[in-house]
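ok trying again, last paste got cut off:
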Amino acid sequence: MSDRDYIRIGEMKMFMHHIYEFKKGIRGLILCTMCKACAETVIKRLQKQNIEYLVQEVVEDKVNLYFGKRACLDTVRTFIDKPLNRLTPEEDFILGAMLGYDITMQCERFCNKKKITTAV
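nice, full thing came through this time. structure:
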């Protein structure tokens, strides 16, 4: 088995865990970056389970696959027309918060991107 095969197996295990978290209500939005071949398999699984999703191309053979609740996906639709490293500080904050990232760290990241000095 090649290194690439191990990576794909790992991606699929992570995906299954994300579906579990979504179905248990732990997360409302999940973002997975994966190869297109894996994404095709994952999308079939999402469709079978009636889970909504969005696909954003990253590079030729990689995509960002978002899945979760409709309101979250509708929000993401407003800014995935560009690479994630081009999000505005506000868009970056919203996405991080929706993905469940630590809110204080998101605030610090936002202030850093906006060049706002915070009191220590």
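cool. The chain has five helices and three strands. The first strand starts at residue 29 and ends at 35.
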